[in-house]
């Protein structure tokens, strides 16, 4: 107020010990909070947040892939080799960290969790040498069929051959572990359409083989089957695998 003296303004200031709850914010507990109205306690309930989860359609369950280590036959680095591994499950791709100067025997111990689509029976594995001043080089790859035992609640661990410049299955081995967990309530999944069996033509395999000479014909056939005979889709998948 204009003309009010300093002494008069000080009289309006609260002087003395502050209460214990001064400027203290009390948060309600998850189970609820109580208050008194006219001497009667009232309990206020707070809703618990519900976790949200989304399961893609056409999914048979969750697969766990552990990329343990690899044993390569050759070091392709000029000075050193910094390998990392890329794994494709269906349309999802995962990578391990890069192991600096690991050379021919990188150890990753990377665990990958992914939804496994229906009719997918294999995964694709690629090992790259990370480059500082050029594009990363793919030094080995493998088309690994999923062990049947994982669908009977088994955990399967094994070494699988790698392909590369040394030849089919001659680039070394990769150590993998698999386990599978079916959906808890498969009844909620939409019914799956029934596809007619796809006949893969030998000329289609031959045509893709000419484009991807280092890829085994059985791998090409498998990719064509997954794409229901679509050569363009199979070609894109092969390009992604080789990139």
UniProtKB/TrEMBL annotation:
GO molecular function: ubiquitin binding; ubiquitin conjugating enzyme binding
Domain of life of the organism encoding this protein: Eukaryota
Record domain CUE: where: 200-243
Gene Ontology CC terms, in alphabetical order: cytoplasm
PROSITE patterns (alphabetical): C2, CUE
Domain C2, first and last residues per copy: 44-160
Keywords: Autophagy, Immunity, Inflammatory response, Innate immunity
InterPro entries: C2_dom, C2_domain_sf, CUE, UBA-like_sf
Annotated SMART domains: C2, CUE
Pfam families linked to this entry: C2 (PF00168), CUE (PF02845)
BP terms from Gene Ontology: autophagy; innate immune response; ubiquitin-dependent protein catabolic process
Listed Gene3D superfamilies: C2 domain, DNA helicase RuvA subunit, C-terminal domain
Family: Belongs to the tollip family.
Name by which UniProt lists this protein: Toll-interacting protein
Organism: Mesorhabditis spiculigera
